[in-house]
Amino acid sequence: MPVVIASDDEGVARSNLTREFQRAATDYDLSYAQLKQMSGTPLSISFADKNTREGLLKDLEERFRCLRGQF
Description:
Blueprint: H1 10-13, H2 17-27, H3 32-44, H4 50-69
C-alpha cells in the first residue's frame, strides 16, 4: 500500500509539509531513503499521464541531487 506524507490547510491542521516530514523522521525514525521514496509516491500514483509522471519524478530526483550538493 502506498504511503505518503501530506498536510492539509495549515490554518486548519496547524501543520505543514516541513513539520510532517520532520515528525516522520523523529517520531517514526524514518530514514532519508524512506522519506525520499515517500516524497515521490504522490507523483508515481497520480492521475497524470505517464510522460508527465516520469517528467515530474525526474525533476524531483534532480532536486534531491541539488540538495545533496548543498551539504
